[in-house]
Structures are given as structure tokens and as C-alpha cells.
DNA sequence: TTTAGGG
DNA sequence: CCCTAAA
């Protein structure tokens, strides 16, 4: 039977099988998810999910395969051939599990690769300041830790398996071959309809929607963890993650779509819900921040332990900061995680001469909005945070000086000229960390006075960063006024200041209130998106090239067959028909592959490289290519929906095709 | 979003 | 494989 089938690819099958091209509006049902390449996410999850998933698969894997159509379907490197049978006897399904090891290897490889990338990215950069280091180690005493404590637990709690964000069931089987398809030949009970993914049932949280009685579609609730306690877990597609890898996607912010389906027409209807860009400031919060700034026109000092110090700024003869340069340098120094240059520590309030002493004990970490899938590991979360911070600090940072809430732009003026020499003025002295000089002008809010510590910064105000921080330059580029260093001994508006002028008061308490994260200014996304990337900081990993995945012979066969049946130029349909479950194969991929196949078929075998494609397949490629090239125009108008016919022409074609194949063989 | 092609 | 103009 198989044999017969194998050579039964005459062109007479074309019209018979030819599926009328439905209007696009009707063809959108299931494609999107399949098209997305979410390998990254899958790989990310691989390490942590493997065990559980395997377990899951044991207990719940069910396969209700059926062979309504005689066709080859590729998924997960697994080729499933459905063989049509005339009766209802159990059909033998060939599960040629050709890629399990390969897939696993690829997955692990990818995983390590990602890690490597991370290291490359940050390996030789010591961006983790002491504080940041703590942050990374989870020992930080500052707000960051609070953030994580408060929310991190949730992350930990969330079951990895329970919220598998895989967008398509295919991915799983690919990376975690189930016991079922790990065997070469699996006999499955006969059913009607295409072979559903046995993997569907392997995911706990996957909701299966049934289409008719034989097609299963999965609906995934992609839960993502958000650092917002107040918000229910957001559902996201992991496509987001991939998109985030490319800086260009930052421009508009990732638009996520949730997939839901209804049973109208027995088909799933994808409902797309536009989501707010993830990296947008929460509007409310943003507004709130801006408003608050108006109330608190004061700046404050952040102590090394994350607290606020009222004594960090003072005049002192001991150390000299000569002008902006000096202070800038020192701050940068600190900002980059190096020991503070100026560690005056509660310097005496004595100003003998014109020397001004600044003590910057620490920098506050700007707000970071971090979003990771629930299924992410704690480790990955740490990495994410670290990389976000690193990226933030990695770029060129410029220090701005604020006096009386206004930016001092003239770098040439002396401190005394500027008025930064008397204790009075020092009260309202503030610093900001801004993107490097190469950046676009700072966003609106940057002009505003520094945000006082009194501002009630809740964990929610974290600003967002890509879940998968392939530290896109976007990050560092997109950090207008991320860091705001404020220093003020005596807040003007003491009434509003929960933080008194005493150093003691703050520290731990304020920390526990998540104050350590000071959302500074205007990290509004608008600005972020607009700000041109700094060529300096641009990193090569921007758009990580997909890992190469050579087509297997089986895949080629499936492709060839699909093209034979559907013709060229209908890659989406081809994808759906033969590669729907192979998420890593987009229709563009298929088209490309066909292109190369045609080319390969034309060249001499000696010139071919890679895994040899059986000549038989290449012959079919040529034949189909020739056929469809010739019939393309005709097919357009000829095929009306539901038309099934075998014409003389087609019979001839068949003969021709056979001949051609024979000849070339 | 898909197709079609160039790179 | 990637990128992108066009549709």
C-alpha cells in the first residue's frame, strides 16, 4: 500500500485534490500560530520543562489519529503518514520519528547557545555593580529584592507545566518526543480526521477545543507573569518573546494577540485582542509620577543600602569635585558598579572653602518593568533582571545636573557660578543619569525635577523590559532618563515627605516598601521608541538568526507532495496541509525550500550538498515545478470551489510526468 | 498577512 | 534563512 501510494503521484491527482483557494478571510483560521516561530521560547523552556512534560506525556498522552486524507504531514520532525483506507479497520500509521534526538539536541544546543549569547553579551563586562550584584544574587537589601520577594514567590509558585506558553502543541513533541512517537511504527486506533497532536494532551493547561469530532485545536492560555500584583496574569503569546529579540519591534511595541476560538462553523475563530504594548508605562502610573513631581520638588539621596540619606550632600573641604566633569565621572563610576569615588559618608557640614563635596552613596535602580512567562525559571528571571540592568548601565550614560529642579546645561560654568556651592542650593541639587550624548534629546519629563523618594513607588511601577533580554541595544538605547540620582538633604516639601531628614528612618523601612526602585522620569515608551539606537552600543545579536534546520528527506517529500497537489504559490495552504504542526517551518521557509529544491534538481548530483535528496523526489520537484509553472495562469480561473475533475489534459500530464520521472531517473 | 523574489 | 516590496 505504501509502495503504491508512493508512486501514485501522477498529476491526475492534482485536480482531484486541488483544494480551491478560499478567500483569505476564510483561510486565516489556524495558520497564525503555526507560522510563528517560537522555538526560542520552546528552547527556553526546554531545560526546565523536560522532566515534567515527559511525565505528563506518559499519563495523558492520547492519540486519536485518523486518516481521512491521504497525505503526509510533517510535524516536529515527525512525519506522519496517513494512509487512506477503504474500511474502518485500524490504520497503520507510520510515525517516522526522525528527529527526536536531533530535535533534542537542537534544543539543548539552542539553550546553551542562548546562554552563550548572554555571556557574550555580558561576559566580559562587569556591569553588575555591588548593588546590582546583590540584585543578581538575590541578596540585595534594596527594593529590588522586595520586588522579587513579593512577586518572585509567585513566579516560583506558578507551575511551569501548568502554564506552558507554548503556542503550538507541536513544539513539545518536537523537543520532547513522546513515548508514542519515539517508536518507529506505532499503531493507532483508527479515527476520522487528521492526526491530532498527541502532544495536545500533554500540557496541563491546554484547553482543547474540538472541531467537529475529529479535529482538535488547542487553545493555550498563555499566562505570563507580570510584576503587577494587581493584575491577573496576562495572557501572551510567546511570539512576543521572539519579537522582542528584534529591536525593531520595539518601535511599536509588541502587539500581542490572544487566541481564542469559537465553534462557529466548526472551526476555530481566532479572536485577536490587541494588547497594550508591554513596555508602555502604565498610563496611570506615569501620570501619577508626573503629577507627583509637581508636589515634590525635592530630591533626595539614596544611600548605599537603598535608603535615603539626608546627609549625603554637604560641603566639605576634604574632597574636591571640580565641576561637572568630576561629579559626572564619579557618578558614572558608581553607576557602572565600581566603588564610589566619593565616599564621604556623613561629611561634616563645614564649608571652609569653596570646595564642594558630594557623597553619592549609591544609585537607585531605575524602574524596570520585567515580564517573564510563568514558566520561566527563577534562573532565567535572574538573568533577565541582570541583563536588563546590565543593558541599562551598559550604554553610554550621561550625567545631568539639576539645580532647583532645572537642568544645568552649561558645562563650563563653575559650581560657584552655577550656585552649587552653598548649602542652600545643595538642597535642591540633583543628578540624573541619562543616555549617552549620542542619544536623542531626553524626553519631556526629564526636564522635571527629580523624583523625590517620597514618591510612593510601588512594585507595580516597574518598567518593562523584554522577557528575553537578548540585550537588545534597544534597552540601553531606550533608557532616556532611567537613572535619576537625586540628592537632597532637606526636602522642601517636608509635609509630603514621608522620609524625614534622618538617615535612620529610611533604610529598611523604606526598602520594605519597595522604594528602592525609583522610577525616574520619563521613561515613557514614546520616547523610548523614538530614540534612535546608538550605533555605539549596538550589538550584533540583534536579530538572532534562526538556527538552521535542514529539511529532512521526509519533510522534502511532504513538501513535494503538497506542492504537487496545491501547486506553487500557495505556500500558506501548503504549510497548513503538510507542515501545520511544524512550527519552525514557515510558509516562507517552505517556499524557500521549494526554490532550492528546484535548483537542486536542476544541477548535477555532484554539485549538490547536504543530505542527499532522493532523485525520485527531485524528479517530482521538477515535474511539479514544470507543471505548475505552465498551469499557473490557467489554474487561477479554472478551479472553482468544489471542482473535482480529471481531464484529459491532466491524464496527459500524468503521463508526461511519469515519463519525465522515468527519463530523468 | 501572504506572495514573490532578491540577497 | 533573511528581508521586503507589493498585494
Q: What's this model, at a glance?
A:
One of its GO terms (molecular function) is telomeric DNA binding. With 665 residues, this protein is an alpha+beta fold.
Q: What this model shows, in words?
A:
The protein is of the alpha+beta class. The chain folds into 3 domains: 232 residues, no CATH class; 248 residues, no CATH class; 112 residues, Orthogonal Bundle (Serum Albumin, Chain A, Domain 1). 37% of the residues lie in helices and 11% in strands. The strands form 7 sheets. It has a 4-stranded antiparallel beta sheet, with helices on one face. The longest helix is centred in the last third of the chain and has 24 residues. It is elongated. The two termini are 23 Å apart. The structure holds a DNA duplex (7 and 7 nucleotides).
Amino acid at each position: 500500500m505504501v509502495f503504491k501510494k508512493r508512486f501514485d503521484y501522477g498529476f491526475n491527482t492534482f485536480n482531484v485534490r486541488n483544494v480551491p483557494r478560499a478567500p483569505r478571510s476564510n483561510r486565516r483560521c489556524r495558520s497564525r500560530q503555526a507560522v510563528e516561530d517560537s522555538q526560542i521560547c520552546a528552547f527556553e523552556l526546554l531545560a526546565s520543562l523536560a522532566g515534567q512534560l515527559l511525565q505528563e506525556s506518559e499519563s495523558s498522552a492520547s492519540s486519536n489519529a485518523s486518516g481521512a486524507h491521504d497525505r503526509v504531514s510533517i510535524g516536529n520532525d515527525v512525519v506522519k503518514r496517513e494512509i487512506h483506507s477503504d474500511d474502518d479497520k485500524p490504520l497503520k500509521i507510520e510515525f517516522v520519528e526522525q528527529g527526536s534526538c536531533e530535535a533534542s539536541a537542537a534544543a539543548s544546543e539552542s539553550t546553551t547557545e542562548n546562554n552563550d549569547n548572554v555571556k557574550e553579551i555580558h561576559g566580559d563586562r562587569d556591569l553588575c555593580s555591588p548593588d546590582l550584584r546583590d540584585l543578581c544574587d538575590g541578596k540585595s537589601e534594596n527594593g529590588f529584592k522586595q520586588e522579587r520577594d513579593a512577586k518572585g514567590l509567585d513566579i516560583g509558585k506558578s507551575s511551569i507545566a501548568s502554564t506552558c506558553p507554548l503556542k503550538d502543541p507541536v513544539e513539545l513533541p518536537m523537543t520532547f518526543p513522546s513515548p508514542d512517537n519515539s517508536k518507529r511504527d506505532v499503531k493507532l486506533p483508527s479515527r476520522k480526521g487528521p492526526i491530532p497532536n498527541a502532544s495536545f494532551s500533554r500540557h496541563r493547561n491546554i484547553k482543547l477545543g474540538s472541531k467537529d469530532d475529529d479535529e482538535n485545536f488547542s487553545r493555550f492560555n498563555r499566562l505570563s507573569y507580570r510584576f503587577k500584583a494587581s493584575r491577573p496574569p496576562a495572557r501572551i503569546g510567546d511570539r512576543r518573546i521572539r519579537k522582542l529579540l528584534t529591536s525593531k519591534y520595539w518601535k511599536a511595541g509588541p502587539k500581542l494577540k490572544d487566541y481564542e476560538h469559537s465553534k462557529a462553523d466548526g472551526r476555530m475563530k481566532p479572536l485577536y485582542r490587541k494588547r497594550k504594548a508591554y513596555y508602555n508605562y502604565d498610563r496611570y502610573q506615569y501620570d501619577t509620577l508626573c503629577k507627583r513631581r509637581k508636589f515634590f520638588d525635592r530630591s533626595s539621596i539614596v544611600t548605599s543600602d537603598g535608603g535615603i540619606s539626608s546627609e549625603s550632600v554637604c560641603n566639605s573641604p576634604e574632597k574636591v569635585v571640580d565641576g561637572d566633569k568630576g561629579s559626572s565621572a564619579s557618578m558614572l563610576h558608581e553607576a557602572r558598579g565600581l566603588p564610589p569615588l566619593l565616599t564621604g559618608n556623613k561629611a561634616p557640614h563645614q564649608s571652609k572653602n569653596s570646595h564642594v563635596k558630594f557623597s553619592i552613596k549609591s544609585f537607585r535602580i531605575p524602574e524596570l518593568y520585567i515580564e517573564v512567562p510563568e514558566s520561566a525559571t527563577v534562573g532565567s528571571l535572574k538573568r533577565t533582571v541582570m541583563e536588563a540592568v546590565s543593558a541599562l548601565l551598559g550604554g553610554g550614560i550621561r550625567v545631568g545636573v539639576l539645580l532647583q529642579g532645572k537642568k544645568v546645561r552649561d558645562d563650563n560654568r563653575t559650581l560657584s557660578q552655577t550656585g552649587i556651592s552653598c548649602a542652600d542650593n545643595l538642597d535642591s541639587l540633583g543628578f540624573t543619569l541619562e543616555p549617552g550624548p549620542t542619544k536623542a534629546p531626553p524626553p519631556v519629563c526629564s526636564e522635571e525635577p527629580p523624583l523625590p523618594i517620597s514618591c510612593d513607588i510601588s512594585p507595580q511601577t516597574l518598567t518593562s523590559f523584554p522577557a528575553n533580554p537578548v540585550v537588545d541595544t534597544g534597552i540601553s538605547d531606550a533608557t532616556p532618563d532611567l537613572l535619576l540620582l537625586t540628592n537632597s538633604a532637606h526636602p522642601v516639601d517636608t509635609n509630603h515627605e514621608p522620609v524625614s531628614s534622618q538617615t535612620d528612618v529610611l533604610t529598611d523601612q523604606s526598602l520594605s516598601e519597595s522604594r528602592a526602585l525609583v522610577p525616574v522620569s520619563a521613561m515613557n515608551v514614546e520616547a523610548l521608541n523614538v530614540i534612535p539606537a546608538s550605533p555605539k552600543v549596538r550589538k550584533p545579536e540583534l536579530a538572532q538568526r534562526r538556527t538552521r534546520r535542514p529539511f529532512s528527506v521526509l519533510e522534502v517529500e511532504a513538501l513535494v507532495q503538497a506542492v504537487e497537489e496545491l501547486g506553487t504559490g500557495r505556500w500558506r495552504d501548503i504549510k497548513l496541509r503538510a507542515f501545520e504542526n511544524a512550527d519552525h517551518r514557515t510558509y516562507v521557509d517552505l517556499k524557500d525550500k521549494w526554490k532550492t529544491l528546484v535548483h537542486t534538481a536542476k544541477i548535477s548530483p555532484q554539485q549538490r550538498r547536504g543530505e542527499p535528496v532522493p532523485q525520485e523526489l527531485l524528479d517530482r520537484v521538477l515535474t511539479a515545478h514544470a507543471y505548475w509553472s505552465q498551469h499557473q495562469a490557467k489554474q487561477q480561473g479554472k478551479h472553482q470551489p468544489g471542482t473535482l475533475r480529471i481531464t484529459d489534459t491532466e491524464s496527459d500530464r500524468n503521463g508526461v510526468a511519469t515519463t519525465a520521472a522515468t527519463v530523468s531517473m
